Amino acid sequence: MKVAVIGSGGREHTLVWKISQSPMVTKIYALPGNGGISDIAECIPIGSEDISGIISFCKESKIDLVMIGPEVPLSKGLAETLREQGVPTVGPDSKCARLESSKVWAKEFMIKHGIPTAGYKTVTDKNSLMRAVDEFGLPIVIKMDGLCAGKGVFICKDMEEVESAVENIYGIATGGKVVVEEFLEGNEASYMIFTDGQSYIPLVTSRDHKKIFDGDKGPNTGGMGAVSPAPLDVGMDEKIKTSVIKPLLKALKNEKMHYNGVIYAGLMICPGDDIRVLEFNARFGDPETQVILTRMESDIMDILVPLGSISKLPSNYTIKWNDGVSCCVVIAQKGYPNDYEKGVHIPNLKNIKTDKNEFIFHAGTIKKKGEYYTNGGRVLGVTAVGTTLNEARKKAYSLVEKIAWSSSYYRKDIGLWR
Ligand SMILES: Nc1ncnc2c1ncn2[C@@H]1O[C@H](COP(=O)(O)OP(=O)(O)O)[C@@H](O)[C@H]1O
Ligand SMILES: [Mg+2]
């Protein structure tokens, strides 16, 4: 089979690597891919948001299966357009992707179908926003409605931070809808499933570190590292299925949403094991995919092929997992998530040897004449699987130390929870 993976991040490198393990696969293309992906697949210089470019390429090259990584092409309708053109595709259509692309829509969906989430109000201007802040009290969470690449959520502990969020939201444009939401105290976890809208296959749990600095300080990022499984109490997996996944599946059926792909539930586990959904994503998480797929022993094509070709999951299928722990440490370019330099040489990267439980997934890299250079803020996701969290962390960090370049930055406390 010829497979095309859409995207250029660490998530897509991990997907390409996992798909390449399958005996069903003869050729993999990545559109557009990155430096690391180019070592195991053919990278085609077509951007992940170039819908017509992707369609033409997939038709001309007679691609047997497309796997879409990022949210923007999903929200622009790439999945349904490919399917209309007869190209087997894994990824939800743009209507189903509203679970992620509109926070207002997702909140209404959750409330309507009894999926536990934080109390909220939708507002459309500064005055109603301020009234909602008054009503809920501080701290307060303010979320922009559309896709914002992780930059549309403001957690405000005082009025100064509310003012600055308002400035951000209504200062630039007139702004659209905004969700004002009660602040929840607790521990986060990510729970992903494959679903065809009728049934689901769960993936293992994970937890990521979103803040830039150690101790979960500083601004949010796309994710600075992750661990799988998430450090949850015994029995939580079942509880998440009962209180979130089952009502979610029922809701998809009731709304006749023919979902196709992955749903990611971002959860807050509040005191008393009270589970609330912070958000849904319509795709794999990044860097959660790195820690999840490195623990997956089954062939991912067992799921992707039927989902892509007939929009159905295989029946009675259980994924086999490595019961160890996986840890991913992201190495970024100094300055991220603000301005940073691109094109920095990563001198040691090409010489690094890894064993079968160590993986270097590339995100923002480019390869030129056999050498790797940075090409984005989050550059590498160094991942290791061990029998314990401690072992996985040690292995990942010892690799990180060998690769880190002089202007690189990484958190030292990935996998340490307080
Ligand atoms: N109601 C809430 N209470 C506390 N923290 C929240 C709440 N909603 C979001 N957050 C924090 O903000 C982060 C980003 O919010 P999320 O809804 O996942 O938006 P996005 O991923 O689109 O930026 C979450 O991972 C969580 O850390
Ligand atoms: Mg999120």
Chart the SSEs and their pairings.
Elements: E1 2-7, H1 10-20, E2 27-32, E3 42-43, H2 51-60, E4 65-68, H3 71-75, H4 78-84, E5 89-90, H5 98-101, H6 103-112, E6 120-123, H7 126-136, E7 140-144, E8 153-156, H8 159-172, E9 178-182, E10 187-195, E11 200-202, E12 207-213, E13 217-228, H9 236-254, E14 261-270, E15 274-281, H10 288-293, H11 301-310, E16 325-333, E17 358-362, E18 365-368, E19 371-374, E20 378-386, H12 389-403, E21 408-409
Parallel strand pairs: 1-2, 1-4, 2-3, 4-5
Antiparallel strand pairs: 6-9, 7-8, 7-9, 10-11, 10-14, 12-13, 13-16, 14-15, 16-20, 16-21, 17-20, 18-19
Adenosine-5'-diphosphate binds at residues 118, 141, 143, 150, 152-153, 155, 181, 183-184, 188, 210, 266, 278-279.
Structure overview:
With 418 residues, the protein is of the alpha+beta class. The protein has 4 domains: 2-93, Rossmann fold (3-Layer(aba) Sandwich); 120-182, 2-Layer Sandwich (Dna Ligase, domain 1), CATH 3.30.1490.20; 187-310, ATP-grasp fold, B domain (D-amino Acid Aminotransferase, Chain A, domain 1), CATH 3.30.470; 325-409, Phosphoribosylglycinamide synthetase, C-terminal domain (Glycinamide Ribonucleotide Synthetase, Chain A, domain 4, Alpha-Beta Complex). Helix content is 29%, strand content 29%. It has helices at 10-20, 51-60, 71-75, 78-84, 98-101, 103-112, 126-136, 159-172, 236-254, 288-293, 301-310, 389-403, and strands at residues 2-7, 27-32, 42-43, 65-68, 89-90, 120-123, 140-144, 153-156, 178-182, 187-195, 200-202, 207-213, 217-228, 261-270, 274-281, 325-333, 358-362, 365-368, 371-374, 378-386, 408-409. The strands form 5 sheets. Strands 12, 13, 16, 17, 20 and 21 form a 6-stranded antiparallel β-sheet that branches. The protein has a 5-stranded parallel β-sheet with strand order 3-2-1-4-5, sandwiched between helices. A hairpin with an 8-residue loop joins β7 (140-144) and β8 (153-156). The termini are far apart. The mean pLDDT is 96. The structure holds adenosine-5'-diphosphate and magnesium ion.
